[in-house]
Amino acid sequence: MQTTLKTPVTFDGFGLHSGRKARMVVRPAVAEHGIWFKRVDIEVGDTLVPARWDAAERTPLCTRIVNRAGVSVSTIEHVMAGLAGCGIHNALIEIDGPEVPILDGSAAPFVKAFLERGLRSLNAPVRAIEVTRTVSVETPNGWARLEPARTPSMEFHIDFEDAAIGAQTKSLTLTNGAFVRELCDSRTFCRLSDVEAMQAQGLALGGTYENAVVVDGDRVLSPGGLRHADEAVRHKMLDALGDLALAGAPILGHYTGVRAGHSMTNMLLEALFTTDGAYRMGMCDPVTRSYLPGAGVALAEMPAVA
Ligand SMILES: [Zn+2]
């Protein structure tokens, strides 16, 4: 069945790019509601923003959604990954600012709070998007692909000059709580050489060594070092799951990303939804349901760092 949270959960923190403080309350919602954001700091006009691929702007550094009135919410990808990874299908996310708090740079604080509060089953069956034909997108930087598969799975490859990141590849079947065990605690990362450039453009203003892993050559500058030797590629998979969640339902298919990012995942969803015969939306039978990312998640399996 579809799920929502049992009770509202509040998060307070600063936006990674805007540096602005925000309070975000993730509230339970009824079946078929989906995931919506609501800007509670704006008093007039349409303040509801759908967490859907066709409301996303193609920005390189984060995922930003905008409604028809121009009201936006930025950096939604980690909370979206937390919801998708825990199998939460319906929520209303109230926020009093333009950007989701970055917290520790991963999805772990969201996942921990969601699993501690617990989920509630709703009286409506889960639908999933079954990939029925391979779609792919390519840019000069990399490529991304979705292909048919019985279980949701993912494969990612990155390649950075800095030796502290280097080349990393990871494959994962997103069943039996794998997201919670393997991906949710991996943090945003960036190169020291990019930080100044971003800040000159008015980005990463809320970035610190505590909410992002900063690397310089072969050195990890953030205190405490890495949570996983391949934390960077794990975080890219977390981002991809959060961005794919803008499809509006779990995707049954195999995702491959090679140096892919937020814009490319969005282009991939557009290709999926606009290519003839590329997908089928269907009710999940119990076997399929047991493959979805939310099945089998357990708070006890969260990595200790959270
Ligand atoms: Zn991220």
Provide an overview of this structure.
- By secondary structure, this protein is of the alpha+beta class.
- The chain folds into 2 domains: 3-121, 2-Layer Sandwich (Ribosomal Protein S5, domain 2), CATH 3.30.230; 127-301, 2-Layer Sandwich (lpxc deacetylase, domain 1), CATH 3.30.1700.10.
- It has 7 helices and 21 strands.
- It has helices at residues 77-86, 108-117, 178-183, 192-200, 231-244, 262-274, 286-289; strands at residues 3-5, 9-14, 21-28, 35-39, 48-50, 56-57, 64-66, 72-73, 91-95, 119-121, 127-131, 135-138, 143-147, 153-159, 167-173, 189-191, 213-216, 219-220, 251-252, 254-258, 279-283.
- Strand 7 (64-66) and strand 8 (72-73) form a beta hairpin.
- Helix 5 runs parallel beside helix 6.
- The longest helix is centred in the last third of the chain and has 14 residues, at 231-244.
- The protein is globular, with a radius of gyration of 18 Å.
- The protein binds zinc ion.
- The site of zinc ion has 5 residues, from helix 1 and helix 5.
- Its cofactor is Zn(2+).
What labels would you give this structure?
single chain; 306 residues; alpha+beta; Ribosomal Protein S5, domain 2; lpxc deacetylase, domain 1; 2 domains; 7 helices; 29% strand; binds zinc ion; metal ion binding; lipid a biosynthesis; UDP-acyl_N-AcGlcN_deAcase_N
